[in-house]
């Protein structure tokens, strides 16, 4: 597999190559991000309501689909 | 039977994929990963989903949550519909900023579920089908 490296930057969620390069449509590319620290975000697990009496606010109306209903 | 998820969770955990719908516009998004968390009081959905659904988060009420480690946080609330195991749940859902949501006991307690840990699978519990 031949590999060519180009430099680019992320702008507005899209990658823009900094050099004048035209890649054909559907070209497969691989992204290598140097010097990037992954920001580990806190993940919630088993959260409880601080005020248990608020659980009533989350009572659900349940609508059951018939077994042969197409979704 | 849906398999437990091993990409995000170690040990593996039961993960469902649900459909969310904006009751105001009918906009839907499918295949949203949701952890089946019997330790969670309520159900929380990933905030990023709201963009697709076109749901605007109001500046009104927030709910204070206590995490398993005792830390607290505030979560905004939205009103959407969630389809899970052929049932549509209509009501209030809290928001959280992570890739997957959490289905808590306000929904889990509405249906029988089977957690087959040794086989890393889960499904709706259907006793009649089991006896056949």
Descriptive keywords:
heterodimer; A: 71 residues; mainly beta; two-stranded antiparallel ribbon; 4 strands; B: 132 residues; eight-stranded mixed sheet; two-stranded antiparallel sheet; 3 helices; 10 strands; 11% helix; globular
Could you explain the architecture of this structure?
The complex is a heterodimer of chains A (71) and B (132). Chain A is built from no helices and four strands. Helix content of chain A is 0%, strand content 20%. Chain A is elongated, with a radius of gyration of 24 Å. The two termini of chain A are 44 Å apart. A two-stranded antiparallel sheet of chain A has the order 1-2. With 71 residues, chain A is an all-beta fold. Chain B contains three helices and ten strands. Chain B has 132 residues and is mostly beta strands. The longest helix of chain B has 5 residues, at 49-53. The mean pLDDT of chain B is 91. In chain B, the strands form two sheets. In chain B, strands 1, 2, 3, 4, 5, 6, 7 and 8 form an eight-stranded mixed β-sheet that branches. Classes of the chains: A mainly beta (71), B mainly beta (132). Chains A and B meet through strand 3 and strand 4 of A and strand 5, strand 6 and strand 7 of B. Strand 3 (48-49) of chain A pairs antiparallel with strand 5 of chain B.
């Amino acid at each position: 597999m031949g590999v060519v490296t180009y430099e680019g930057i992320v702008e507005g969620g899209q990658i823009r190559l900094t050099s004048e390069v035209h890649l054909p449509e559907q070209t497969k590319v691989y992204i290598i991000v140097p010097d990037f620290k992954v920001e580990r975000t806190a993940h919630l697990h088993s959260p409880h309501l601080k005020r248990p009496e608020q659980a009533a606010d989350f009572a659900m109306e349940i609508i059951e689909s018939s077994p042969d209903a197409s979704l | 039977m849906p398999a437990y998820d091993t990409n995000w969770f170690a040990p593996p955990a039961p993960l469902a994929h649900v459909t969310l719908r904006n009751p105001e516009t009918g906009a839907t998004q499918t295949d949203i990963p949701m952890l089946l968390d019997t330790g969670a009081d309520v159900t929380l959905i990933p905030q990023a989903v709201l963009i697709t659904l076109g749901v605007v988060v109001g500046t009104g009420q927030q709910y204070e949550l206590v995490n398993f480690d005792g830390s607290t946080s505030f979560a905004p609330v939205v009103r959407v519909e969630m389809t899970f195991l052929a049932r549509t749940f209509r009501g209030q859902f809290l928001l959280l900023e992570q890739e997957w949501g959490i289905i808590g006991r306000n929904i889990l307690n509405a249906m029988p579920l089977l957690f087959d840990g040794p086989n890393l699978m889960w499904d709706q519990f259907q006793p009649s089908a089991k006896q056949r």
